[in-house]
Amino acid sequence: MKKRWLCAALFALLGGCASVPGDTAQAVPNATAAQTRTMVDGRIEVYAQGSGPLVVMLPSRGRGAEDFFELAPYFVKAGYRVVMPQPRGIGKTTGAMKDITLHDLANDTAAVIRSEGGKPALVVGHAFGNWVARMTGVDHPELVRGVVIVAAAAKKYPAGLSEHVDRSAELSLPDAERLKSIQYAFFAPGHDAKVWLHGWYPEVSESQRMAGKATKQSEWWSGGAKPLLDLQAENDLFKPVETRGEIRDEFGERVTVKVIPNAGHALVPEQPAAVAEAIISWDRGLK
């Protein structure tokens, strides 16, 4: 898994990487276009790659766009343009970090979509990013053609899990302690959580946590009125089995539920090929 993390880092620099010998994950397809890095509105750093229908990817709490560097080539190969904005406080992205709500973060996403021409985008949000994706669907429906929520937590999930997310991003703790929380909260049994030992931003994590607390769940929960893919992980502690149908039960046929086997709350680094296949298949079915 360390090799996969290195591969992702090289991808950021070189715009592509080959398969990694000895890695248990499926090989990343070769990119068909180099990755670019630009600034939107002078304050939002955005990585982009490929051409075609627009896909915007929003990362988990306290983590950056690099989490999608291994996933993006699957979409590029399938004929999509992938844009991956850095959240506030990561890389060169700036903006208020205190006294903000999910509406502010959704406005950042909207600015990125407008910078790409304003055609409706598929907005993909992983874990905390799904809150922002759904808020974007509510606040900016004209810019969204569909919402994909990846490893979205249930409306109510087991107590204590959020503490493990906090500990995962607490860099003052020994790596061994952090790794225990990362393994428990994010990865399915048997998967090596070291791939997520790095890439955490404590101040960003806290800012996003407070933005979520400052926004009523009812304001973002629906994701708007566009089609929604609820992409779940089979071993996600944040999504107990009895809650798997809660979003579809509430919003009906506009919601599609897909469960990815052998994955936890991290999901994307665990099963990138399956994640890409599920999203692309669903999106093409919308047309």
TrEMBL record:
GO molecular function: hydrolase activity
N-terminal signal peptide: 1-27
A Pfam family recorded for this sequence: Abhydrolase_6
Gene Ontology CC terms, in alphabetical order: membrane
SUPFAM superfamilies, sorted: alpha/beta-Hydrolases
Keyword tags: Hydrolase, Signal
Record-linked InterPro entries: AB_hydrolase_1, AB_hydrolase_fold, AB_hydrolase_sf
Domain annotation AB hydrolase-1: ranges: 55-278
Name recorded for this polypeptide: Alpha/beta hydrolase
